Amino acid sequence: MGLAxxxxxxxxxxxxxIALFVAIADPIQRAGxxxxxxxxxxxxxxxxxxxLGTIWLAGRRAPQDGGxxxxxxxxxxxxxxxxxLLFPAVLVASIIGFGLLSLLDQPIxxxxxxxxxxxxxxxxDTDAIGDYSASAWVVTMxxxxxxxxxxxxxxxxxxxxxxxxxxxxxxxxxxxxxNTVLFSxxxxxxxxxxxxxxxxxxxxxxxVWRRQNIRLxxxxxxxxxxxxxxxxxxxxxxxxx
Length: 241
Description:
mainly alpha
């Protein structure tokens, strides 16, 4: 797979999702839902079908490989040792990476992105819980947990690590780094977190590359998202008006 195509396949779904998010954020808020609800619609309407659709089309073009599942590589079974030792080690490394570099997120946001509207800068404003109804928050948080903790991470790992990363072997040892950087850029909705995302994502991208097992990446990705999303959902639902 050529470099231009690699870059495009990494960035296009994020670009389409942010375009939809920006287009519907205002009407979604006028309908009584917080801006993060518009972001969740973008995940469900753009990111999930684009990424799964790309994998499905690749499988259709090469039916001899076993259909759409055959287009997903890095499915080498791993033993108990990987799950008992490697998984917690990679998870801790990712948490530390995110934690340390996230100290730069706010200064970068203030310096480079302060011109963006508040609803973009703060998808979930914990100071504005009372601005929306309890029912709107419940629906939003349920979707947030489903899409950001389970569906989103699983689909992204299938696409970015199961489909794209194995097809970047021409880049040699640089493939995991390029995949990590492009995956971080793909998150156009939080550009100020570019550096912290690289630091947090790199450990499990390299682990998937070395162990050729996307399940490891899925487990770490889901765990990372669950920590932040579940904490936020508990706080929001516990402070409803």
